[in-house]
Each structure stands twice: as structure tokens, then as C-alpha cells.
Amino acid sequence: MNSAGPLSHRRRWSQGVVQQVSPAEVTDLGPGYLEPGLLPVDLLAKAYREALSEFGSAALAYGDDQGALPFRAAAARRAGCTEAQVLVTAGTSHALYLIATMFASKEDVVLVERYAYDLGRKILTDRGLRTRAVAMDADGMDPEALHDAIVAERGRVAFVYLNPTFHNPTGIVVPEARRRALLEVAARHGVLVVEDDAYADLTLDGVVPPSMAELAGYEGVIRLRTFSKTIAPGLRLGFLIADPRTVKRLVHHGLFASGGSANHVTSLAVATLLESGDYDRHLAWLRAQLKARRDALVGNLTGPFEFDVPAGGYFLWLRFAEEARVPAEVTVAAGARFGDGPGSAVRLAYSLNSPDRLAAAGRALAGSWIPSLERT
Ligand SMILES: Cc1ncc(COP(=O)(O)O)c(C=O)c1O
Prior knowledge:
Bound molecules: pyridoxal-5'-phosphate
Domain Aminotransferase class I/classII large: 45-323
Shape: globular
InterPro entries: Aminotransferase_I/II_large, HTH_trans_reg/aminotransferase, PyrdxlP-dep_Trfase, PyrdxlP-dep_Trfase_major
Protein name: Enduracididine biosynthesis enzyme MppQ
Distance between the termini: 51 Å
Order of helices and strands: EHHEHEHEEEHEHEHEEHHHHEEEEEH
Low-confidence stretches: 1-5, 370-376
Organism: Amycolatopsis xylanica
GO molecular function: pyridoxal phosphate binding
């Protein structure tokens, strides 16, 4: 299923083409990206060819505002909803921006987990919204703290933004009972929930609970999906699922009236993958790749720190009390980027490097804590 990989292509992985390039000698555990060799170049080339041959010039027109029906039908079938509930977006970032524009006014508050996807928060604050962190524990956001925050903000809460499955940055999965408790609090106060479900297809062990949106019957919850983490971020393709009224409101935004569907031709290409079973085969392959990477990292991380082995997604959250010294050959994402909490933490992404490099990075990180312990 894998291709030769973009490193073998003529105009390859370089500054000015891609968002970030790490020096070859550094093992970068910072960004939540896929390793270049995991990006399915040949699969996408085939999918675009098929879409262009099947739809011809219609693939190159402005797409239906809400998104091309073949894509929406395939996405809806997988999610157990109707096409009317699906809106194609240019990924989760775009969807979050759209919701922050259509369902919030300047100075409104968005409630987020104590640790939350930092760039998602940036989209909200760049739009003039305030974010307020709500306490969380190993099972996710605390429902009582959510209640207290809603009451404290007295009608200024536009929505709650949650990432309950393979959470960025902590990797946790919110259990079903906690999901229901959070939904109950939000519904009692009439507060919209925005569920960022970027990693839910990437389970490495076992099964995940139903999405919060499914538990709520897609009422009062907007669920955000993306192919950035499961196929390739360069597609800029995702979709949101909500009740049909909410979708209708969002689709009236000038962005769709003016430009039609986000990434129309890409959505038709991805629709062929969803329909043919290629997406599911690709997911099975990708999960195996990620599992090998997670296990290589976890198997080599021993030291005076704590972590829970993530059951899916891209991230491992390493907590420690001692002052850490990260070795020069490894870079990590500082936990403080995502929020404040007791103790210190770093986020390690196991998506961007090979199992061998991750094993070596794990050993280097494990070794790096020893000097600081010896000093005490
Ligand atoms: C939780 C979460 N949401 C959204 C995104 C971005 O998604 P997209 O590429 O679809 O905009 C990321 C990427 O890091 C993420 O971790």
C-alpha cells in the first residue's frame, strides 16, 4: 500500500515547499505530522485519476456549496448520518474558524480542556474569542468544572471545544460515561459542543467509545473530521457533521457562496477511496505502522517520568517532576504550549519518525534524565 515515498521524487521535501523541515541529524518528536514515507503518493495519484476520469469537467467546476454529493454520501454512510448533515471543509482548522465566525461573537468565551490543541486555540483567539481552560483528569474534562465555568461566564460561552478521542496532547480517550456526563451538562445549559475527532480512526489497541456527537444523536454537537491525520494534511480535506439546520446555517457563509465546496476535486478523489475500500485498507496499514512506532518509543522509555501508553492517535504525554534536559539530538513539544497544569510534561509524537529512530530517541530521552537525578 505504501508508495516509493516523497523523498524519491524530483522536487522533494524542502523548505519553501512544506511547512516544516527538521535537520536530518535531529529526531523531531515535536510536530503531529506523518513521516514522509507514510504519505500515500501513489494511492492519491490513482484516486485523482479516477475522479477526473469519472467526473470529467465537473471535477474542475466550482463544487456544490455543501460539498459534492458522492463524497457526502460516502462520509455519511460511514458516520451513520444523512448527507444533509455533512459539510465538506478544508480540514478541521477551517471548520473551527467557520464555527468561531458563525456561532460566536467577539469577546465570547470558548471553554477548552486544561491541556488543549494549541493551534486550535489560536484560531479561536485570532477570531477575537477568549478561551477559558476547564480542569481535566485522566478521563478528560471534569463535568462539574464544566458546569462551574459555564455558570461563571454567565451567558458568554459560545461553545465547548473538546478532543475526546486520542486527545492532543495527552493521548487520552474519554470513557463513554464521562462523554455522557459532559453532554448532559452542556445540554442542561444549552451550550453547543464542538467535538474535534481528528484521530478517532487511528485506534492501535481495542475499540473507542462512540463519538460524543453520535451519543447526542448529532443534536447540540458539531463533530469535526479530517483526513490530515489518516491520509495526508496536504489534501486540506475534512468535513463536519451536525444537525441539518446547523449545516444549512454554516453553508450560507460567503466562503461557500463565493467559492463553492472546499477542495472539490480532492473530495471527489477521496470519495473514490472511501467507496472502493482503499481507505479502509490504507487505514489498516497506517495503524500497523503507527503501532510499530509507538511500541518502539514506549519500549525504550524508562526513567524518572510517568506516562500512559496511548491506545491510538499520534501522541505520548510524558509527565515528570525533575527538571528535564532534552538531549540535543531530540526535539519535543513543551507541555506548557498546551496549557498549565501541575508538574511538567512534554508531548512526544511518534508519527514522524521510523521505529528505529524512535527507539534511539526513547533511549536518549531516558538517559537525559539521569544527570539531573544525580545532581539531587
Ligand atoms: C486535535 C487537532 N485538531 C485539528 C488539527 C488540524 O487539522 P487540519 O489539518 O484538518 O486542519 C490537528 C493537527 O495537529 C489536531 O491535532
